[in-house]
Every structure is written in C-alpha cells, then in structure tokens.
Amino acid sequence: MAIKTSSSREVETLLAQLRNGRSADRDAAVARLRVIGARAIDRLSATIGATGESAATRAAALRALEDLEDPRARDAALRAARDDDEDVAAAAIAVLRGWIADDAGAHVLDTLTAIALDQERPARARLAALDAISQLPRDLVQPVLQQMGIEGRGLGLAPAPDDPIAARDWLSRQDRAPLSTLHDFIVEVRNRERQEPSARRRQDWLVTRGAAHALLARRGSRVALYDLRETFDAAQAPLPLDFLTAITSLGDVDCLEPMARAWASVGTDAWWKDRVADAATDIMHRLRLSGRSGIVKRIRAKYDGFL
Length: 307
Description:
It contains 17 helices and no strands. It is mostly helical. Residues about 150-155 have low confidence and may be disordered.
C-alpha cells in the first residue's frame, strides 16, 4: 500500500520518536502509529527487521502493530518472535496473540509452540507463548503442556512451600513476580495438594492455589488457564471464591462446559451454584456469545438451568 506524502512524513516523524529513548514520546508515537494503521505497516516492518535499530525501538514498533488486522503485521511478528532480545520477542508474541484464533495455515500456532517448547529460550518468552496458546481449545493446548513437562518441572524460580499458610504469605508479596514464577508456584502447590493426606490441609492448599490464580487474573495472564479449566472440570464441592474471580476475568469459551460440570456436581449449595452460573454468564457477555452459539446451545441442553 502506497503511503501518501503527508502520511509518509508523519510516519517518519513518529519513527524518530520511537528512537529517541524517552518513554512518554515513545508511548505517544506507538498510540498514533496504531491509529495510522495499515499505512504505517511497511515502515514499521522495516524498522523491526533493521539490525541497526535498538531493541527498544524494535519492540516499540511491534507494539504499534498490535490489534492491526493486516497479514503484514502478523508476518512481521512471526519474523521477530524468535529474536534473541527478550523485549523484542515478547512484543512479537503479543502481536501474534491476536492472530492465533484466526490462523488458517497454523503458522502462528507452530511458531508459538516452538517457542514454548524451546528450553534454550528465556522463561519470559516461553511463558508468553504459552499464555497466547492458552486461548485455544484444551485438546490443542494439552500436548504442549505435556511436552513442556508441566507436571514435573516449572519454568521459573518459585519456592517449594512447606505449608499452605507460609505459601500464601509468600504469595502476598509477589504482586510483581515474573509470570513464570507464579506459574511454577501453582504447579508446586497443586502437587502438594494432590499428595496431602489430610483433608483439611488439602483444602488449605486449594485456597492457596486459588489465591495464585486470582493474582494471575489481576495481572491479566492466562498462563495457568488450563489449571483453572481442569479444577472446575474435576470439582465435586464448592471451590474457593478466588477461583471464581479468576475464571470470571480470564475464562474463555472452553471454560464454560467445565464450569457447567462443576455447577452440576456440587449438590445443593445454591449460593455457590448461583455464583458459578453468574460467572459463566459474565464470560458469555464478555465474549459476546448469544443463545444461538453452538456451545451455549449444547450446554443449555445438557445442563438445564445453568445458562
């Protein structure tokens, strides 16, 4: 697409702002470049691929491509996703996140899966890729989780908590912890929960795991969404409210049926059943699902009164 002279001058001015190193100017330039949209993609792509540009400039150029529905934006991000610089790779993955559900050739999924499974990549990039993949149906995500060795090892440096109270105390100080650390914490807590012979302490571990999910939800990260789905899918009793908070905020269409099964399995606790149904309705509204949606029709037929 040819850029008109006036637009071309503005794009070059904005690219200069990306390079000047001042955070406020860079953010303002990113916002304006998003508005310009398709007319700026070719120059942004050239900037992203230029070896002489700083990592900060290239990452900012990638941020300007987020939410642009133009295949050139996707292609630029695919090329940058395996970059050696963590900031550039993370920014590229953020762009690809918006394309993963509309990926006819599976190029985006293949790239993100390769990053998630690459043990030579930094944990930040691997978790960002897994976070993006977690939007997909469970049957597509599960093989990636298995290959990553989710059950046996994590990706960060979460401590091995000795008891659930100490673990929650540690978690309360981790608002800015790396997502990989929080993910590892959930994996470790889940393992402790499964191995715990005492029913009371199992419940304490479950409360702790729910608190970690709530923290990830406040951070907007879906990196452990698979664990939320599985927890609702297996629930035979009301879950701690933090699980409802997290799934209401982060839940996708593939969470609805596990939530319906949890709703049907908890017996006569009307208050909790109502909260699960409310959370599912909130997810429906957030995803703009109507009663004509196939998944909604199926759930309503199978779990009368849930949605």
